[in-house]
Write the structure tokens for this entry.
Amino acid sequence: MSHDDPGRAAHHEPYTRLVMLARPGAGKTTQADRLAHRLRLTHLDTGALLRREVESSSPLGLTIASALEHGELAPDSAVMAVIGPGIDDAVSTGGYVLDGFPRHLAQAKALDAFEPASSRPQAALLLEVREEECRRRLLARASLEDRNDDTPPTIDRRLATYELEMLPVLEYYDNRGMLVRIDGDRPSELVTAQILDRLGH
Ligand code: AMP
């Protein structure tokens, strides 16, 4: 067991509650989706849930529309209102792969205060991809997908926000022995295989 394995010795139950951390553009959503499929868990894509809320023009959606458009983090209260019920539902049907949450330390702590304790994450997967490669992938995606937050200035803002906000989150999970580092700068099938291997599948 390497030192950064997430407490395998003490952890005999299968992994059913995972968070996926990575820079924007690192392939988080692709990997979370595949992993959820393989492990029969629910993929909770925070960004997609927030975008859906905006599209529905609900009062909640109106409060987060401008943040999303500018690549800024949406207010925690709104994000929790969207993701909280999703976590509850996912736990009741076997577990989750949480993608896009937490985005900063307060959200990581909020997740660890979730009740019941059996709905809190067991491990945090960190997909490591260099910033330049993420920028390149995001610009490529911009021409394929109709996402109005994939413009060069917004991409730069999102990457900068990640550097600023996520370092304390990585430390937080590392200190708890929950952080699993994955080399994300490889063909995506190999990344999936590495994740499954590290989780003991
Ligand atoms: P993503 O699809 O993960 O790139 O997220 C798209 C946008 O949704 C981000 O740029 C933020 O505006 C918002 N967002 C996603 N996840 C969160 C979160 N956990 N907290 C606050 N805002 C978020």
